[in-house]
């Protein structure tokens, strides 16, 4: 009864207009110390990262006389695409004078098979480790993870000998093999962690339904794991495309990847330093990973989150 | 005829024995429920029957064949999981067809079977949908359908209703029972819910620590539990237990504190009786008020707490210094602090050896 009475008086107070004061959604101030701090920081950091890119783009569009004036932040007075064409087609690297184009195609020929091979093998590895608890699985996994912590430099020379004995030293396939193997630890870990988050009952149901090792992999696991494949692809494409060390050690000038050629263009000592060409060449080299990030950014974040939850 | 037969099944994980030399025979068309608390090995046993776990020792026969080393798909079983385990990227139809396609069944036969299963389970309008677009109950029906289309001898259910809310669980429970009446397949059903076990089962196997404690009809298990564990596990609220001294002078009786419960009407299994015993009586076998005096034994108790539950009311009382629960009609006027007379028939009780905890 007492409850009813208080409710009635409250209603009466409201109709009498005595219930004034805040009501509804709380208003938000657009300029508050908190907002100023957050947006200020973001702006500052963005400028810090974007300024070099701006300088590169601007410089690559200038002619050499304009660059010699020294105003590196000034926009080009006269826009020229000459440096871009030169960087792509005629810049000299050692003996060859066909620009980055040769290196670009080399890099494509290295990256595509390495990415496909490493992901194909690592995903099956991860699937086997996560779902088919075979004998020695833990030992195998430990060894593989251990491999991820050994610095590459330690293994450089032994691998030179290995490739030489296999007869593929200095060839594209030699480098592809190296990239595939070095991608294994981190990719296997990535896939294993992802596949352990797939409910075990799904795997059991598929077994009761008569699907075997490959049947479950292709028909159940693969269609469920697009995000993690995208993540693996991004990691591998950017990693292999940007690789310099393996490229310079395990290949010969004819099959140098783009990064090695870029280095040779930028660091060539004969004649004048053509900053505009160097800038253009660097941007061209960086375009592929940049493109990959833009296209798949959303999937990347989703896949990382999905793989990170359980491990 | 026996449908599933398990001989000396042992399963070890390292040095841990999860199942200990377990024997179990299940008749053709029988509905067997494996019941027990979590960690008792009931799901493990089901996985062994399904072939999803490799056993350490023993044999498993299904439909007369030794399937001990067979793949799950070769055993003639269908399985329904707690999480439904539907393939998320396939439509309902795809889910139902997956097992049949793996068995390389001709297309028209697959269609025929899916149509039949969909009709039995009333999921025809859902066939084109993805599992994510289904409700919990619909998903569970599809999961049952996946076992149904494969036309297997034995259905295995692994806590199929645990993920559903109480109302839906009650509905699907009846539906599973109806399905069993209609299909007449052998069904093995794992649950930790005793209501599910009592309502569905032809026979219940109560498990604890990898050992079957009692395998019998729900009626026998409820009324004549073989040991203290089964007696305490079945029934909610649980049985009242009173420890006392057995005396056998002129008439058998149980003595504790100043109370003497005459056991003349209790059907002892043998004449070999120890001194110390535990007397158990279910709360629902206790009568109260005027009816109490008609029972062979009656006593005054003091009421501590009254818990009205709608249809009936649970009363927590003190019987000669011991906690004692009994169930009365929901319209009862009993209040905390009152003293009331209760009575029961010792013939309905269970008496266990205090040492071995076995039924006397």
SSE blueprint:
The complex is a heterodimer of chains A (311) and B (360).
Chain A: H1 2-15, H2 33-60, H3 64-68, H4 82-90, H5 101-131, H6 137-148, H7 152-166, H8 172-197, H9 200-208, H10 213-224, H11 226-242, H12 245-250, H13 258-267, H14 275-308
Chain B: E1 2-13, E2 16-27, E3 31-35, H1 42-50, E4 57-62, E5 65-66, E6 77-80, H2 92-102, H3 107-121, H4 136-149, E7 154-158, H5 166-183, E8 186-191, H6 194-200, E9 203-208, E10 211-216, H7 218-223, H8 228-233, E11 240-247, E12 253-256, E13 259-262, E14 276-281, E15 286-288, E16 297-308, E17 312-319, E18 322-329, E19 339-344, E20 350-353
Parallel strand pairs in B: 3-8, 3-9, 6-7, 7-8
Antiparallel strand pairs in B: 1-2, 1-4, 4-5, 9-10, 11-12, 11-14, 12-13, 14-20, 15-19, 16-17, 16-19, 17-18
Helix pairs in contact in B: 2-3, 2-4, 3-4
Question: Care to describe what's here?
Answer:
The complex is a heterodimer of chains A (about 300) and B (about 350). Residues about 305-310 of chain A have low confidence and may be disordered. Chain A is built from 14 helices and no strands. Chain A is mostly helical. Helix content of chain A is about 75%, strand content about 0%. Chain B is an alpha+beta fold and about 350 residues long. Chain B folds into two domains: about 1-225, 3-Layer(aba) Sandwich (Rossmann fold), CATH 3.40.50.300; about 240-355, Nucleic acid-binding proteins (OB fold (Dihydrolipoamide Acetyltransferase, E2P), Beta Barrel). Helices cover about 25% and strands about 35% of the residues of chain B. Chain B has helices at about 40-50, 90-100, 105-120, 135-150, 165-185, 195-200, 220-225, 230-235; strands at about 1-15, 15-25, 30-35, 55-60, 65, 75-80, 155-160, 185-190, 205-210, 210-215, 240-245, 255, 260, 275-280, 285-290, 295-310, 310-320, 320-330, 340-345, 350-355. In chain B, the strands form four sheets. Chain B has a six-stranded mixed β-sheet, with helices on both faces. Chain B has a five-stranded antiparallel β-sheet with strand order 13-12-11-14-20. The interface between A and B is medium-sized, with 16 and 25 residues.
